[in-house]
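Q: I'm writing up a methods section and want to include an example of the input and output format. Could you take the sequence below and give the corresponding predicted structure tokens, formatted cleanly so I can copy it straight into the document?
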Amino acid sequence: MTAAATPGEDDRTVIECDVVLFDLDGTLVDSTPVVDRIWSDLARRLGRRPEDVIGRFHGMQAGAALREVDPTLSDDEVDELRAWVIDEELRDLSGIRPIPGAPRLLEQLPVDAWGVVTSCPRGLALARLDAAALPVPAVMVTADDVADGKPHPAPFALGAALMGADPSRVLAVEDAPAGIASAQAAGCSVLGLLTTHRQLPIRAIDDLRHLRLDRVGDGLLLTIPGEVDDRRPR
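A: Here is the clean output for your methods example:
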């Protein structure tokens, strides 16, 4: 049986799965102000306008994003700038907070039924979870664990494998197109969050506050009330 999203009573959507894999930034943790500050500085260092950079590369590893910003950068320049970005992100944790609903949902989920798949390095992921006062999952896939980051399927494929789950029974929760593409390519079902993008090509909700979790046998049922905003392209 695959993970499934089906209409329920009163236009609710019920998602059945065995495991939930969350992206981190924009999904469990609101770090957008920090990211915007640092990438604005980076854009200026590269002679770019901040508005041409900010928000365009959410969900991508820093190195891949840098190559998108400036394809002329050498490997050494990419490595140097990537190290600068990570150092700045580790230094600047001001204002980081949990996405609304994240603490309650993680508290309800069994520890063996959820993990994190993020494009940031492990040290930064741990620092941001701590800053947001969120628990550290038993399974966490970071930029340190895969050669090919999102939108490549490798991150979510590894996450499913580490959870011991068939990807078809995994629900990925993502806020960015790169992460959505990664999860879908790995064979996962995906629920979108409208935290960093105001329109996504899948079913998407504003945050995690309205999700209801129930256990059914060995699986999970996540219910999305019908009144929750849904901004799929129509």
